[in-house]
Amino acid sequence: MKKLIKKKFVRYTLLIVVILGVTIIGLTLNRRSFADQNVSGRDRDLTDFSTIESLEKARKGYNVKNGAEKMPVYGNWQNFYKKDGLPSDKAYTVRINGDQVLVGTHDGLAVYENGEWRTYTTEDGLAHNGVVSIDVNVLTGDVWLGTLGGLTRWSAGKFETFDQFNSGMPNDLVYSVFCFGKDVWMATGGGAGSYDNYTKKWEIFTEQNAPMHEPWTYSVSAGDGKVWIACWGGGVVEYNIETKQFRDYNDPDGFMEIDLDPDDGVIHAITTATYYAEGILWVATYFGLSRYDGRNWKGYFDHDCGLISNFINFVRAEGPVAFICTDLGLSTFNSDTWVTYKRNDNNEDGKAIVMKGTEVIKEIPLSPSISHNFVIGVDVEDDVIWLATSKGVSRGERIN
Amino acid sequence: MKARFRILVNFVLFLLLSFFYVNGQEKVANYGNIPDEVVAFRKYREAYKYHFIEPMQFYGAGREKPAPTDLEEVRLGFLGPLEGSMIVDLGMQMLQGSMLAIEEANNKGGYNGTPFKLMVHNDFGLWGAAANEVIKMDDEGIWAWVGTIDDINSHVAIRATLKSEILVVNPGNPDPTYTETAIPWVIRVIPDDRQSCYALVNRVYRIDNYPRVAVIRTTGRYGREGTKHFNRTATRLGFPIIIEERFNDGESDFKPQLERIKKISPDAILMWGNARESGLIVKQIRELGMEQPIFGSDRMVSPEFLKIAGKHAEGVVTTCQYNPNTDDPKYKAFKANYVKRFDQEPDVFAAHAYDAINIIIEAIHKVGLNRVLIRDVATDMKTFQGHEGITGIMIFDGAWNNIRPIFMAEVHNGKFEFYPAPPWVQAKQ
Fold first, then answer.
1. Contact B40 A253 (CB under 8 A)
2. What phi, psi does A32 have (nearest 5°)?
3. Residue % of chain B over a pLDDT of 90
4. If residue A397 lies in a helix (H) or strand (E), which one and from where to where?
5. Chain A residues 140-179 with CB within 8 Å of chain B
6. Which of A291, A309, B171, B201 lies in disulfide reach of B356, CB 3.0 to 4.6 Å?
7. Which of B22, B39, B127 would you mutate first to test chain A, the one with the most A CBs within 10 A?
């Protein structure tokens, strides 16, 4: 053997084989790590809890620990479709209004009250049957409906329409409406606008008078004396109502095709929604989620946390919890723990996936689950949650 | 022994190199044909996330919706500048290209005997008119639509199309950011200004070696976004633009801007604007005694530009998204039919609109009347990947941009001559 090893040819051969082996292992690991980086939340192989025992346990409230117990978990889902009285299966938005639940669908406004659905359409006075945004003015009790063809006020049983021809509306396509004090704010296809309920005056915000790149706005929300407009291609524009000063937040790297650093600002210029609660501004994009605490930005993507998808249709926050409507399910997040609701592909059941970072803590089976994974709207009050989805409306109750 | 050892070493090296080559092929290609050396920040670090590498999927409902059985016509939408806009001529060409495709499809029996009908909408009007028009198209029950040219109107319209969930095939807007919105309802058949800018940068800096370039562009989004990738790429190569002057659409006197450019004696001038203004600028550049080579945007490839610039157009270099002088029989047939039908030569918008409508019609023939399924088949990166249109091959990237090789256009003897854009010239080591 020693003789054999002493032979030059064999020694070199062994050396080359070792080098080759190490190189191949290195490259293989590198490749795997590259693949891991690109894996999305949707592709993670999750343990399936499908036993009766685990189901029972879920109903009683799972013993999620390590701080995760602070996150509300919703179950006992009840789903509604056209066959149950909705004007359409395609629901855009939902708003809880006392004993009523208002749902904007592609074919009209649906109101759920005393266990029954009632529909309102253009025949009743709606500006357009496609109702994409709803808010309620707490001062007046008026319901404001943003539609695909104008803004409608529902007050004292009557519908009144505002459009580009009869008012100071920026555009008839109202993507978002938000009531803040006496004002009604809206984000439209032609800029943001506000309507003062007292003075009846309109104000328009476009690239002509605000730091927007173009007059394209997609969402508006407000809180603590400020309004946040999600500007399509222009990040977020903040408007201070008292000082009338603007401030804009955009992706600092300036490139549409990359995000250089997830925590350096809004993660992308294409923003789809904003929501402010408890001092935190949440910003939704089709590229991931951003969180701003007034000092620091933090970005979240589907490959580095419990966010189920980067394609976010809408975000709403209640207290510390953000409810993130994505095309692959509803993710909720309290800056620590993620809970994602997802329906199975082949049946009406699904699960709530509790995660911290990229680690799955629990999977809670849900039967039934939400009506569809393409979630477009959400509202929460007390222990009840409502979802508007691409196919149906869902109602859930807190189970922990 | 030495010979055997050499053979062994060579064999191992061969294995290693093969392994590296195969492994390297699996690397994700740069989005949008971005040359390696100009990928954003790559000289210093990798980005945390690269977008548009994989196409977006649509996970919403709607595929189960049955096709209607009582239709008298299959409606397709059209959105373009037809009234009140400064680019009505381009819009009319786009409309005529669309109409020709529809008429030819109907002559072949429409969709299973039901004729196609184009629902025509003007994109120019009150603020955000394009959004309202898309909603009208939704109400009209269209199955997909084509349009438009103007950057702003195109952006406004795609958000509405996302909400309405209707496929749009864009034949005319070259704004790179248009498809960089992650909307899974849009594909673009016309190569964008990113491709034009890379071709121009390559020509100006790497082939012709003009390090000091002045830019004069329209103030609007067309000029701003159009020149963005030229400016960025030039800067990354080490040649920042030495001056940028702007003008408004409709202006006729550009001497103040040109005087400022003249003062700093650039090596070359890049202009970005519509045909009329570009023609006037070229004329005024030469009238001022400036002899610099002139490069410009594809909208200069127009009879209007040649007419206005006259003899001064000689030597002007631009890009073109296709070759209008091709001998391809399909294009020649289209051109002959177009001239016969409209008594006018087709332009880039007519040709790409013709391709766009034909993609939609083919998609409908494949999957039937269901908006989501039409979207699925048009964007699956298989059915229409490599599709041969009259304008050339369709090579879609992760954002559904057509990134096929484009053409350079150069004026000789009063006419544009077209030739393939040369491959990217690497930096000298």
1. yes
2. -65, -40
3. 89
4. strand A392-398
5. 148-149, 164, 170-173, 175
6. B171
7. B127
CB-based burial of residue B25 (10 Å sphere; 0-12 exposed, 13-18 middle, 19+ buried)?
A: exposed
Backbone angles phi, psi at A134, to 5 degrees: -140, 135
Residue B134's SS3 state is helix
- Give yes or no for a contact between A378 and A326, defined as CB atoms under 8 angstroms apart: no
Residue A11 pLDDT greater than 90, yes or no: no
Interchain pair A190, B8: CB under 8 A: no
Average pLDDT over residues B338-362: 98
Q: Does A343 touch chain B (CB under 8 A)?
A: no
Chain A closest-CA separation from residue B16 CA (Å): 7
Chain-centre distance of CA B313, in angstroms? 24
Q: A43-398: which CATH number, 2.130.10.10, 3.60.140.10, 1.10.1520.10, 3.30.230.10?
A: 2.130.10.10
CATH number of the domain that B297 lies in? 3.40.50.2300
How high is the mean pLDDT of chain A?
88
* Helix or strand (DSSP H, E) at B19: helix B2-25
Tell me the residue type at A205.
F
C-alpha distances in Å from residue B308, one per residue of B26, B280, B281, B311: 50, 6, 9, 9
Query: How many angstroms separate the CA atoms of A339 and A361, rounded?
Result: 10
Whether residue B294 is found in the same domain as residue B256: yes
Is the separation of the CB atoms in B392 and B28 below 8 Å? no
Task: Report the predicted TM-score, pTM, of the whole model to 2 decimal places.
Answer: 0.88
ipTM score: 0.89
Q: Which of the residues A10, A42, A256, A260 would you substitute to probe the B interface, choosing the one with the greatest number of B C-beta atoms within 10 Å?
A: A256
Residue B127: closest C-alpha in chain A:
A190
On whether residue B336 sits in a domain, the answer given is: yes
Per-residue model confidence as pLDDT tens digits over B246-289: 999 999 999 999 999 999 999 999 999 999 999 999 999 999 99
pLDDT at res. A15: 74
Do B152 and B207 reside in the same domain of the chain?
A: no
Do B87 and B180 lie in one domain? The reply is yes
A189/B128 touch (CB, cutoff 8 Å), yes or no: yes
Domain map of chain A by residue range?
Answer: 43-398
Three-class DSSP category at A31: helix
Does residue B274 sit in the same domain as residue B415? yes
Mean pLDDT of A156-169: 94
Is B98 among the domain residues? yes
Determine the Cα–Cα distance for residues B358 and B355; give it in Å rounded to an integer: 5
Gap between the Cα atoms of A305 and A40, Å rounded? 10
B126 and B186 inside one domain: yes
Are residues B144 and B98 both part of a single domain? yes
- In this structure, the answer to whether residues B146 and B90 fall within a common structural domain is yes
At B11, is the pLDDT very low, low, confident or very high (cuts 50, 70, 90)? low
Q: Is the Cβ pair A214, B23 closer than 8 Å? A: no
Whether residue B33 lies inside any domain: the answer is no
In a domain, B21, yes or no: no
Looking at residue B32, the DSSP 8-state letter turns out to be: G
Tell me the shortest Cα–Cα distance from A9 to chain B, in angstroms: 6
Residue type at position A108: G
- Residue B357's identity, in one-letter code, is I
Q: What are phi and psi of A19, to 5 degrees?
A: -60, -45
Residue B129 pLDDT greater than 60, yes or no? yes
B356 to chain A, closest Cα gap in Å: 25
- Dist. CA A195–CA A148, nearest whole Å: 18
Domain span holding position B89: 74-191+327-393
Q: Are A99 and A113 in contact (CB under 8 A)?
A: yes
Sign, CA torsion A392/A393/A397/A400? positive
pLDDT tens readout for residues A256-301: 999 999 999 999 999 999 999 999 999 999 999 999 999 999 999 9
Number of domains in chain B: 2
Q: Chain B within 8 Å of A287 (Cβ-Cβ)?
A: yes
